Amino acid sequence: MHYDDIFLFVQLIEKGSFSSLSRHTGITQSTISRRVQNLEEYLGQKLLKRNTRGLFELSDTGVVFYSKFKNLATEITSYVDEFKTPNDYSGVLRIALPRVLFSALLVPVIHQFQEQYPNIQLVFTYSGSDVDLLLDNLDLAIVIKLPKNQNYKQRLLITSNNYLYANQKYIDKYGAPLELTALDSHNIVGESFNNQVYDKLVALDSQTGEYTEVKYLPKIITNNALFNLDFALNDGYIVNATEFLVQKEVLAGNLVKLLPTYSFGETKFYLILHNGLRNKLETVFVEFVIKILENNIG
């Protein structure tokens, strides 16, 4: 028996299908199937219940076997990785995240990651909507909405308050709103979700802790608030944007925070990962992202 077959079996369960594991490892589906069968023959027991569609579920023995070895496989991988140098890490890492987050968070510093890990190829997919790691052939994703498929690991990375922003040209032309009641006379980009247009904002007063509902009539509406920043940078509109993504534009003088004592909701960024074994490529990239977040927040 090859002990690698045990770890391959664990990976198969984590990935959920022969095709997904094949894409992840580069091992053909027929080879994976044969190696699992070899393991079953050595044990003298069936680990998987297969069907004609190529799908499977764990047998009772398979459940016990997987529970015994899943943590051991993770520990061994971790121990081996401790002896690796950055040049030892090689392979492809496929990542999905919103374009505006990529531009604000990664573009200024991604060269640092590449210099440290020159043999890792990063493949980025811009996605502002629901992602499915298996169906989209992704290793990880950063999202603002939790995926419909709840069978993945989820980790909250950051929560950032939303504020109203405009550029100075807008303020010079239309003036800055000084009270919440003045917002209905301004050009505020609206938001929609599931084809429902929202015509009100909920303002939280940071000084009193009180909430106020503010109605307005949006003339432009988008279904993803992360992309509204472009409107504010082009003179004609006020946008409700998450502070984390616009703080550099504010510091550079490109945007001005309006009604700064009021926040208008919050945006949560989540890290989505496959269950089970996490390879070192994923680990070092996640550590890199967390470090960037800490530097930006701190």
Short description:
The chain has 298 residues and is an alpha+beta fold.
What can you tell me about this protein's structure?
This protein is α+β, with helices and mostly antiparallel strands and 298 residues long. α1 (3-15) packs across α3 (29-43). The mean pLDDT is 85. It folds into three domains: 3-81, Winged helix-like DNA-binding domain superfamily/Winged helix DNA-binding domain (Arc Repressor Mutant, subunit A, Orthogonal Bundle), CATH 1.10.10; 86-157 and 269-297, Periplasmic binding protein-like II (D-Maltodextrin-Binding Protein, domain 2, 3-Layer(aba) Sandwich), CATH 3.40.190; 159-266, D-Maltodextrin-Binding Protein, domain 2. The strands form four sheets. Strands 3, 4, 5, 6, 12, 13 and 15 form a seven-stranded mixed β-sheet that branches. The chain has ten helices and 15 strands.
List keywords for this structure.
seven-stranded mixed β-sheet, 10 helices, D-Maltodextrin-Binding Protein, domain 2, alpha+beta, 38% helix, 298 residues, elongated, single chain, 15 strands, 3 domains
